[in-house]
Amino acid sequence: MLGNMNAAPLAWLRALKDTARSGLTVERASLTPLIAVRGACGVGVVVGLALLIGTPQLAVSSAFGAFASGIATFQRSWRPRPVLALAASAGLAISTFLGYLLVGWPWAFVLLLALWAFLAGMAWGIGPTSGVVAAFNISVMLITVHLPASTLGALSHAALIAAGGVVQAGLIVLFPIRPWGERREALADALAGVADYARRLRHDPMAPFDPEPLIEARSAAYVTPRQARRRPRQLHGYRALAERFRPVLASLADPVVGGAPMVGPERDRVRELLSAAATVLDATARAVRRGERVRLPDQALDVLRVPKSGPVLSGPARRAGLRLIALTDDAVEAAQEPVEVTRGGVLARVTWHVADREGRRRGFPDRAPLVDASLDGPYGPDPEDLAAEEAEAARLEETKAAGGKHTPAAGHALARERHLHMPTLAGLVPVAVRSFRRELHWRSPILRHAIRVSVVASVGYLLGNALPPAHGYWVPLTAAMVLRPDFSRTYERGVGRFVGTLLGVAVAGTVMALASPGPYLSAALAVVSVGFMYLLMRTGQAITSICTGAYVVFLLGILGTDWYQTAYERAGLTALGGVLAMLSYALFPAWETPLLRDRLADWLAATGRYAIAVMDAFAQPAERAPRQVREALLDTRAARQTWEQTVNRAEAEPVRHRGTHSPLSRRSASDAQSALVTLGRATMLLEAHLPDREAPSDPGAVDFSAALAPAVAAATTAIRSSEPVEWGDVHDALTRWWEQADHPPPVALRTAELLTDALDDLAHAVIPRDSSGRGREHHAAGARTDKS
């Protein structure tokens, strides 16, 4: 509650000032005018037909259905857009019908509204798209339930609302506009991000790597079976290639693990390889983004060969260099089409390299084709999948030998295509149930948000009905649209929506006063407003609210509503709804600041599993599970993403800490984040050198992994309870490994030392501070004593 928060008035003033500034910020975003026009046409078609063959009330209902469906198609979701449009309109249609049946009994309708709002709040546990669409449907339902005049009329209104979604979905199917464009952009950004990483490694071997583009590309790779059959060829294998490049590039550049000195011919060769790999990745990203053939300069291909004078690199660096050359060859082969190679000079010319029946290209290194090339990364495919692919490859070879048609392609052309499965809407039901169960605990921000939305919507509806104006539903409507699970977005949206609504109502009200448009002209103005809203949707809440405010004023003008009443009532009631939403968050908050230690512990646990999985590959190569490292890496990325989101939200909150545990200051959080990033980077370096299953076991790795697992588990518990973190057993295992290691030390041992240093930095960052604030100094002194 408000009284229990450790927050000074100045902190609240600062937080409100920052969120207000963010809410009024106009962001630069790429505009999609054709898609906006298509969505506006969907609204226009529905409104026009409803006005011609029906009543103004039906026209308004159908317009809201098409409007809500259009809003759903603009959300950041990888689900097919027609499915989003149909789902949004179906949900709104059902809500409208049920709401009309109970709107005559206020308390029954309030109970229905509370239940619907609670479910809409819990929908955030499934994902942001589900939460936004559900909240929007609740808001629109509060308007549409007042339009029908009978039960049969309610059925007609519900049917027209659903028809609005059908029209939007039909337009998307009939007039597709870059249907794979967003997925192409996500994959190209991932490839370009790895290319940028390679270039930065040339000058800074310790350069950080941002996994966000790879996370987004993986999300974009989820497709339905129907999409998998229609997916463009370029969207098949490049994401796994980008994943395979990442550890090899880092290992090649690192002077400790790779072994290439910072000065000398070996470092020059490393820089040449990194630059050539970046060129190949950039060319591939450009081809994927534009849907073109891959165009490569011949200078990059010349670098990606072993020099005629002999290899320059040695040891781990040479192995990483050879793997990098093989990966760039895979990147070219993954095109599965002719590759254009440009040769500079006075007489510039272009040559085309086409794969033969064995997947070889002239001018590229000869490599044996791999059945599972580029589809599974360095972790290997699942045994069942590999067996099925080999059987399919054998069948195709028999067909070719018997005279059947066989199309030559790259080395992995015989591989069976696999994809990440996206569940259908029916398949989302068990996912939603599991999500609800997972969030049913008092500390869950999603549960607290659902309770907050439910209470605010109910109280807002009762308050709106008690006020003199006839359109009191604007109070709960605004509150439901403004509320979000976190503090910053709730207050940003509240300020942006209030200011945007005032401007939108003022502009639309002035037009209505001067022009006095009839129903058809009002409908046309509403369509123009919604078109601008679709176009500018990603530029900020204030701009979107301006267009939305104008749209509602023009749309209700179709009903002949007095525009003065509509404008001024909506402005005042919108302000009241926004204030109610922001006040509800202050009274019943879900602060992220107290969760920092839990999120940090989760990240450490995930990164520790990643390090243990990689170290186990050296300890027991023959027993390594095919997907063990990959799954641990994905868990690490998810935990890091959650941590970064929590930190960003906590920085905007007016509270620094509350609870019995020692606070995690901003400096401590930053130092701990740096330590865990270093821990993940060191593990990534070792990942590039995973041994084969036939490799012998390393006793030192066995000992180190056995010491690391319980130490990480104990450290996560210590961080949650604000206790000192100890790594004594890990240090002892590392010392024993050094004593029994050969010279030069193996890659795993050098990486283990980097891991241990990162763990020490983490322990120093999270050491609890006493009342005098001397925790770090005492810990540092103790660490120096132990080492001495």
Automatic annotation (TrEMBL):
Residue span(s) of domain Integral membrane protein YccS N-terminal: 91-198
Basic and acidic residues: bias regions: 771-788
Region (Disordered), start-end ranges: 363-385, 644-670, 766-788
Tagged with keyword Ribosomal protein: no
Protein name: FUSC family protein
Bilayer topology term: Multi-pass membrane protein
Pfam family, one: FUSC_2
Domain Integral membrane bound transporter intervals: 461-583
Transmembrane region(s): 83-101, 107-125, 155-177, 494-514, 542-559, 571-591
Lineage: Bacteria, Bacillati, Actinomycetota, Actinomycetes, Kitasatosporales
Family, as annotated: Belongs to the YccS/YhfK family.
Keywords from the UniProt entry: Cell membrane, Membrane, Transmembrane, Transmembrane helix
Cellular localization per UniProt: Cell membrane
